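Student: I would love a firmer grasp of how sequence relates to backbone shape in proteins. I am handing you a single protein, as its sequence and its fold in token form. I am told such tokens are a discrete way to write the fold. I hope you can help me see how the letters and the tokens relate. Take your time, and here it is.
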Amino acid sequence: MAKVHGKNVYWSLGGTDLSAFGNATDPERTADSHETTTYGSDSKTYHGGLLDGTCTVGGLYDDAASGTPQTVIEPALGTTVAYVYRPEGTGTGLPQKTVNVVITKYTESAPVGGMIMWSADLQFTGDVAITTQS
């Protein structure tokens, strides 16, 4: 098993590659769990339920007029767009995850002693397609 560096991560929203503006991508998948314990049991039992997921993305603010997080993500707040995540970068045979997401939050942070940063929260909606790139 080879170790993989995060520097090659690719991700896009609504067909726009925003990788060059990001330095953090944190997808999270979860599943509901439903208790099914019955009388007389000594331990709880559970049954799996619906899958869910979110992702937080973030990076350095860029003041370019188009194709940046503030010009792509902020105007799309509250809408559903396609999210593509390639943890090992772009290339034939490498993994890719695709899911529609609702953009639920866009934040800009401007510390007095540092760079302006941005972040966004994405809520998965529907199934995640896990494939390899061709």
